Amino acid sequence: MNAYQNLAASYDRLTNDVDYQDWVDFTHAILEKEGVKPRSVADLACGTGSATRILAEMGYRVTAVDLSEDMLTEAMDKCAELENLPTFVHQDLARLRLPRAVDLAVCFLDSLDYILDPADCESAIRRTYKALNPGGVFIFDVNTPEKLQSMDGQVFLDEDDDVYCVWRGEFDVRTNICSYGMDLFQREGEVWRRSFEEHQEYAYSIEQLTGFLKSAGFTKIEVYADRMFCAPRAGEQRVWFKARKGSVKRK
Predict the structure, then answer these.
(1) 180 by DSSP, 3-state: which?
(2) For labeling, which of 10, 87, 92, 249 is most exposed (least CB within 10 Å)?
(3) Secondary structure of the chain: what % helix, strand, coil (to 5)?
């Protein structure tokens, strides 16, 4: 089953604690530090389009990409009344090919961790490099191995009046993958419908991702603590990456 097939309609209610404006604001802080003023942006793994909408409302020409058709449908509905309509693309990041190059690519909420094969992750980063205009910037965040390992054996509960979700984490040291099964109960009129989804994330290290970025051709790579301009500390739960494409195209 496609991850997010059942979750898509309830995703925003279960993640209402995520301050997407704060994520976009930190992205802008990085861009100001770099002295870059992009006009176009690719929102990679855009999900239900919360960041997509903010970026479009700020005047960017936005291309929003996601592997889940269900999440893209939610994103399109969320942005439907905007004057500056984003372009929506149903695509696997490992095979990314945008309709036109962009000045900035972002990939929020540990979405690269969902690429379970390191070769595919490297391919996604390489294709992102190709999708950027010369001088373009790639900004993304990931969960750290420490965070994903700590989820082993944990049980979490999210709920509101119309949705109830129980998820259980399990980390496999052999595969380096954290799996979490989600029992989802969604209200439909007077009845509740139960469904199950399994989500998985690969625990990429800073060194591994830095290697992928360098191999793709990125330079000026920096790694930050979560939305802070300082190096990650021991036990950091989330880290951010910034990388630049050279101003001259590679041959």
Answers:
(1) strand
(2) 249
(3) 30, 35, 35
Q: How far apart are CA 150 and CA 178, in angstroms?
A: 10
Tokens 């961790």 map to which residue? 113
Under 8 Å between Cβ of 206 and 239: yes
What percent of the chain is modeled with pLDDT above 70? 93
What number of other Cβ atoms are within 10 A of residue 237's Cβ?
A: 13
Please identify which residue in the block is written with the tokens 């991702």: 209
Q: Which two tokens stand for residue 202?
A: 């690969």
Residue 188 and residue 176: Cα distance in Å, rounded?
A: 37
Q: Is the dihedral of CA 110, 114, 116, 118 positive or negative?
A: negative
pLDDT reported for residue 250: 46
Among 92, 141, 107, 116, which residue's Cα sits nearest to residue 201? 116
Taking Cα atoms as reference points, which of 204, 220, 199 lies closest to residue 122? 204
pLDDT score for 251: 43
CA distance 231 to 81: 40
Question: Model's pTM, two decimal places?
Answer: 0.92
**Largest distance between two CA atoms of the chain:** 61
Can you read off the two tokens belonging to residue 96? 């990314």
Mean pLDDT of all residues in 126-141:
98
Name the phi and psi angles at 222, rounded to 5: -135, 145
* Type of residue numbered 18: V
